[in-house]
Model the fold of this input.
Amino acid sequence: MVDVFEFIKEKRADLKDNTDRYRVMIEPKFKALSQKLNSSISNTLNNPWMLNLPSIDKSNIFKKREPISNENIKKAYDKIKNRVGEEILVGQWETVNQDQINRFADLTGDNQWIHTDVEKAKIESPFKSTIAHGFLTLSLIPKLTENFDFESIHPGLKMIVNCGLNQVRFPYPVKSGSKIRGRVKIVNLIPKRNNIELVNEVSIEVEGRKRFGCVAETVLRLYY
Done:
């Protein structure tokens, strides 16, 4: 038993010696590589892709948000912030038919057979039906949310500007003939000098399905 313990101690000592030896050999190489990387990153002349990037003003990273000076913006912001995380709309059902899909295909040039060839889709598509383009579903958001009463949450609203999308996903295909409706939830808002930037999560529900046809974060500018 003593011999076994001695053997283990000896092997551990050998391992430590080998580790230290390799560390002595490798450490200078890593150090040199680290210095080279640091030098390259700090020297934008050696990094054309960094050359035109504006420098970061670190003093503004943790800058406290300025008080809202515009009284209309302040009133609207105070009202909307209490609704963050709340579902504010469940829209009416709308049918997506083949004629809509075909017209969208013609308009965008996306004539892939899974959208337009009804007979082939019945045989070869895993969905056994033609399906709406994801971007068609996305483009229907204004129609699917048109019944929202803006005055109930945004009194005095003068104008809305669509600024785009943060992210979009199409979890489930929308088959031709399906009924869909929009569900809207406020997820964030940021007061600006003369407007409020509002982020909504819009989910497109497909009748009879648990998964949504589309989930998108829309970004709007609200002017009061």
Observations:
- The chain has two domains: 2-51, 71-223.
- DSSP finds nine helices and six strands in the chain.
- The beta strands are 87-90, 94-95, 159-169, 179-191, 196-206, 214-223.
- The chain has a mean pLDDT of 83.
